[in-house]
């Protein structure tokens, strides 16, 4: 089987889909791996490192795309490159299938077996392949580091001859993978941390990290079978905002992480709540790319409102590209190895398998993912 790893076409993407370590593991199993020349330079991997791991260095991108049995990326492919892929090719990357219907239909039309890394089920068996979680983990970490750098205060308490400095207050909204890592990082840096989540089940995890869990009586809430928070009613959202407004007003840093799988992110921090915060405060909105949790967020930008900073940067994992690439590459490698047949020397697509059924979007010219089918039917 021929695998090709092209450069990412997004100019601001610093990560690489596969690092030399993973190339070596795939090559040892008999896979022919080719990488586009210069593919790993932005995160510290030169062509020589890939060659030593067993990869071919390719300069003709179009030819390699057309010859590959499998293409591995981070971002979704440009529409014009989908047509270059040979029929039956397996394409694996983040695809954003809920919002990229035209792209999905093009993949279907061209007979591409497209696997979306966002759609890997959140099960114990699939945990080592879960790229959404691995990247969210790093985003949560970097959000705190970024906020701490922008804040004109230190985070920990200090007792000095000149007096005692109180710890900065950090409020983390959403205690999923990114939120829990943000809590842990803020605590390690010495901040006082408050956290909120609509799922009462995460309270124990929040407390175990040393943070205070903000309780709000929202009535019946919970999570989906994949561990995502369920969407709240408008009445529940209003109760949530009222309770959080008090915590936001006394916080130096607010980090929002609330996202709804396949849908627009919920508005959590209103304009009024933003205006109630002290000048010099910082908000990092991790949901900026999916609509934003904060009223004033502008995706891809940092903006100032009443002397406070709201950060809505895209691709936070890309700011720690070396480790983000390492983790994503391991996710891909684990996925491929799990379904690699030593006997057939091929990657198996068993549509009855729970993991493949969850992440395979198109196959043999058909849209095969039931969740995506249902989403498109409602559009």
Describe it.
The protein folds into two domains: 2-119 and 320-363, NAD(P)-binding Rossmann-like Domain (Rossmann fold), CATH 3.40.50; 139-314, NAD(P)-binding Rossmann-like Domain (Rossmann fold, 3-Layer(aba) Sandwich), CATH 3.40.50. 34% of the residues lie in helices and 18% in strands. The protein has helices at 20-28, 47-53, 61-67, 79-82, 101-109, 131-150, 177-188, 203-208, 234-249, 271-276, 321-338, 354-359, 370-378; strands at 2-5, 32-36, 56-58, 70-72, 90-93, 113-116, 158-160, 163-165, 169-173, 192-196, 212-213, 253-256, 282-285, 302-305, 308-311, 340-341, 346-347, 360-363, 366-367. The strands form four sheets. Strands 3-2-1-4-5-6-18-19 form an eight-stranded mixed beta sheet, sandwiched between helices. A seven-stranded mixed beta sheet has the order 11-10-9-12-13-15-14, with helices on both faces. The protein is globular, with a radius of gyration of 22 Å.
């Amino acid at each position: 089987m021929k695998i090709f790893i092209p450069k990412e076409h997004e100019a601001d993407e610093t990560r690489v889909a596969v690092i030399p370590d993973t190339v070596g593991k795939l090559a040892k199993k008999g896979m022919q791996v080719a990488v586009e020349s210069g593919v790993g330079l932005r995160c510290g991997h030169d062509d020589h490192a890939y060659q030593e791991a067993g990869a071919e260095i390719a300069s003709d991108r179009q030819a390699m795309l057309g010859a590959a049995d499998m293409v591995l990326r981070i971002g979704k492919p440009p529409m014009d490159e989908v047509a270059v892929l040979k029929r039956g090719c397996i394409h694996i990357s983040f695809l954003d299938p809920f919002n990229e219907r035209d792209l999905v239909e093009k993949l279907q039309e061209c007979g591409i077996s497209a696997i979306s890394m966002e759609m890997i089920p959140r099960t114990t068996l699939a945990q080592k392949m879960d790229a959404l979680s691995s990247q969210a983990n790093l985003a949560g970490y970097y959000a705190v580091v970024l906020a701490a750098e922008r804040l004109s205060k230190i985070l920990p308490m200090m007792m000095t001859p000149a007096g005692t400095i109180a710890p900065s207050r950090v409020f983390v909204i959403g205690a999923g993978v990114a939120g829990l890592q943000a809590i842990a990082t803020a605590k390690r840096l010495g901040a006082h941390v408050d956290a909120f989540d609509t799922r009462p089940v995460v309270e124990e995890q929040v407390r175990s990290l040393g943070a205070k869990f903000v309780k709000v009586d929202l009535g019946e809430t919970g999570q989906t079978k994949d561990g995502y928070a369920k969407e709240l009613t408008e009445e529940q959202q209003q109760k949530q905002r009222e309770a959080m407004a008090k915590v936001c007003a006394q916080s130096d840093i607010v980090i929002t992480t609330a996202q709804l799988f396949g849908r627009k992110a919920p508005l959590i921090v209103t304009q009024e709540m933003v205006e109630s915060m002290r000048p010099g405060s910082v908000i990092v909105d991790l949901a900026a790319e999916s609509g934003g949790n904060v009223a004033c967020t502008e995706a891809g930008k940092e903006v100032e409102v009443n002397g406070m900073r709201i950060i809505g940067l895209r691709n936070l994992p890309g700011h720690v590209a070396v480790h983000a690439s390492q983790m994503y590459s391991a996710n891909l490698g684990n996925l491929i190895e799990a379904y690699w047949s030593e006997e057939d020397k091929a990657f198996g697509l068993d549509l009855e398998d729970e993991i493949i059924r969850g992440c395979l979007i198109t196959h043999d010219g058909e849209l095969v993912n039931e969740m995506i089918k249902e989403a498109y039917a409602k559009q």
